[in-house]
Fold this protein.
Amino acid sequence: MPDPWCRGTARGYERDSFRHWIEEDGDSCTSRAEVLIAEAVTPPERGARCSLTGGSWLSYYDEAEVTDARKLDIDHMVPLAEARDSGAHAWTPERRQAYANDLDSVMSLVAVTAKTNRSKADRDPAQWMPPAGSATCTHLIDWTATKLRWGLSADDTERTALLELAEPCTDSVVEYEPAPSRRSTRPFGDLVPDRR
């Protein structure tokens, strides 16, 4: 396992190298839809091929209530480009796919407003934090847990920012389970923490 605090210098990120939003458990729902269903405050109705109608969500990045799933993005807590530059460049295609569709950890993928996800882009906490102050500790915990879960590195600037930004998070603990070597399918539903 790489030292999680020593940053690699990989370049050449291509989004297609992380196959994402796959359907893998036979219910016609992609991993994107699975996250939307699991994080809904008011459950959406599931139609044919897992089309979702109705429902409501709370985007914890900006404390926005959203009633149209099309206005939500599923954010990779540690963006795919950041993951690649932090060690995923050396992974197999199967491991990159498992990372991009990680339903086994509630911290890896989160439903947020499209505008906040796009403003974040591929930036780390040294460069971007959620606009809602209430999201700070949760974001830092989820970021750190995801990096540790997948054995990803952090550069000095990122590490310094994490430590400084986490100073007010005195009651927070980072808990994570290392990612399995092989992808296993488990239901996501009841594992989602209440972020309201």
User: Anything to note?
Assistant: Confidence is low (pLDDT under 50) at residues 1-10, 183-196. Residues 112 and 177 are 23 Å apart (CA to CA).
